[in-house]
Amino acid sequence: MVPGRLGNRFRAAGHSGYRRLRTYLIVAVQAGLAAALSWVVAREVLGNPDSTFAPAAAVGVIAAALGNRARRTVELVVGVLLGIAVGDVLVLLLGTGAWQTGVIVFLAITVAATVRGPGALTTQAGGTAVLIATLTPNAPGLELPRTINALVGGAVGLFVVLVVAPLNPLRTVRRVADQALDLFAREMTASAEALARADVGAAERVLDRMRASESELHRLTEVVGAAEEVVRFSPVRWRRRRTLTAYRRGAEHMDRAFRNSRSLVRRIGTALRDEEPVPPDLPAAIEHYGEAVRMLHREFLGGREPVGARERVLRAVREAGEACRQEIGFSGTIVVSQLRTIANDLLRATGVPADEARRLVRRAAAGH
């Protein structure tokens, strides 16, 4: 049994690593291109003999996060300038040495954290202050080349991710969404089957898997944000704006639905352990909910209005309402209530306004 479980874990880790590689390989390509181009610009075009920081800054812009790269570029450059300013002033006042370096870095990071908080600005301010404190006596005139390199690296990094090698937004989102939403729908189907068979162990395993897979939904949100940044700034991807905007809004509500679904599965386990009666309409409602997740994904990718997903969500609410009017226990009624909350999340993910979503859920729960 132990070797079998270890084998399953290794296979799962391998599949997970392969999925991450497919998603983030474009980042490695972009970073390599940006590093090479920024080095050429800094050294060959601008004639800066010490061009090390240009590729470092370019890679920092690309690798820091998939989204918000424009903001991070500004933070990086401002951090360099802040580190230079603080470092120069304190070197003049304190001189150089071990304790002076510690004080200079402490004050540079304190100022940066006060201005922005943790992030690229604070990191670059601290790193620049170190160089100013330790290298200025041996390498005077470091300030201007490092500032220029920061600008070159940031600009080249943005140029690569937005013009030279922008990610294909829909393909990237589709690849991650296929995994995340299929997993979501599959676990809802598994929880419906566990409830129908009164299998407590199966319900607990579903909950364990959902806890372990939360990163999949987080990755979807991250990739959607990065794709939206590309279609906002990259001319070659502008035509994808509407589709990505809908996906971003949907991803936010899907993340909330997933979290609420874990509470639902937890309550299913409680109902089964307490041997409460389970009306057949209740597992059917949860199964319809899982199918609605699948339909929503297909309709979004097809560029269609998610009418089918909305109808399936409301069908799940109606069937849960029927279950509530039959013999049902305390935990069963909580499952019905949670399913209505999740249905509201899913309707919001399809683009239904908040007030309208609540009205539709109430009507469906009443059997209309």
UniProtKB/TrEMBL annotation:
Instruction: Name the InterPro entries for this protein.
Output: Memb_transporter_dom (IPR049453)
Q: Tell me what organism the protein belongs to.
A: Micromonospora rosaria
Q: Does the keyword Transmembrane apply?
A: yes
Transmembrane region(s): 21-41, 53-70, 77-99, 148-167
What is the membrane topology noted in the UniProt record heading this document?
A: Multi-pass membrane protein
Instruction: Specify the superkingdom.
Output: Bacteria
Gene Ontology CC entries for this record = membrane
Record protein name field:
Integral membrane bound transporter domain-containing protein
